[in-house]
Amino acid sequence: MTAIRFAAMPTADARVLWNGGRDAYDNLPETVVSDGDGNPCRHCLQNIEEGDELLVFAYRPFPALQPYAETGPIFLHKQPCRRYAAEEIQPPMLTMSPDFIVRGYGANDRIVYGTGAVTGIADIPAYAETLLARPEIAYVHVRSARNNCFQYRIDKVKAPAPAETGALA
Questions:
Q1: How many other β-carbons are positioned within 10 Å of the β-carbon of residue 80?
Q2: Which Pfam families does the record associate with it (predicted)?
Q3: How many helices (H) and strands (E) does the chain have?
Q4: Residue 122 in contact with residue 100, Cβ under 8 Å?
C-alpha cells in the first residue's frame, strides 16, 4: 500500500491573489459573496460560509503552459486563511457531489492515459493509492466530475532519506 497525502493549493499561489495578483488568464479575480453551497476554498479546503466574500479566478495547478495544463475556475477565501494541514486525512469539503474525477499525472505534468475515473468520495483514497503505486504516476488530481474544476492534489508520502552511515577517518 502506498502512503498518500492530500495537498491544498500552495500558499504562495493563494498569496499572489490575496495581494492583488492576476490569475492564470492574467485577469484580476472576481469578488463574490458565498451563498453557502458548493463554494470550497482550495487553500483551507473548507466550504466558504454563506455571506463571506470569496475570490473566483482561473487556476492552473501546473508549473508551465503545455497542452495538458488544465485551467479552470476555483474559489478562495477573500481574506487569508490557513492552508489545509491534515494532509493524511481526505478533506471533508467534498460534499457538493457524490463523485469526482481522479486522474494520474506523470513527472512531466501530463495526464497518464487510462487513469481518469469518476470515483465515489469514499473510494478516492484507495483509487489514488492504486494509481500512485504505479511508477509512471507522480501525483493525482481530484477534480469535479461535472465541471472538471481542480479540487486538490494527492501525492505519495516521500520516504525519509536514509541516515548517512560510514566511519569517520
A1: 15
A2: DUF1203 (PF06718)
A3: 2, 8
A4: no
pLDDT tens-digit series, residues 109-121 = 999 999 999 999 9
* Coil, helix or strand at residue 128: helix
pLDDT at residue 157, rounded to an integer: 85
What's the rounded Cα separation, in Å, for the pair 147 and 156?
Answer: 26
What is the rounded CA–CA span in Å between residue 124 and residue 98? 11
Q: Which of 135, 152, 168, 158 is nearest to 42 (CA)?
A: 152
Grid coordinates of 101:
474525477
| Tens-place pLDDT, residues 25-57 | 999 999 999 998 789 999 999 999 999 999 999
- Secondary structure (DSSP) of 61-100: -SSS--TT---EEEEEESS--PPP--TTS--TTTTS-SEE
